[in-house]
Design brief:
This protein is mainly alpha-helical. The chain has 6 helices and no strands. The longest helix has 23 residues, at 56-78.
Amino acid sequence: MIIMWALLRPDAISILKDKEAKASLPRYFAILSGEKISRFLIAKKVRVDIDLSSDLSELWKAHDEALNFYWELEKAVDTKKIRYKSIPDPRVSLLDLKSEIANRLLKSCIFCERRCGVN
């Protein structure tokens, strides 16, 4: 992967040697070097037992509960207590849940100061 960067963006390869960048983004560099797994991939392995058509407040409740398990799983995967590839894919994952919540929030957008509610 790093070789591809060197060919496509030779100017970008210098960041890989930048000590300040490495100190600021340790997980990112660990992922690049193959030492750790991306957080979104770990979130794809966290099973969530909820119908995604449930009320938004129920989705948030399930999200909070799943996050507790997520942090435990991330630690176990990072310390090699659990092999990432051995974790089965759930029918509904924490990543699916996060996506559903985000889509619902965007249906009546309140992210900028206008809070216009546009879809």
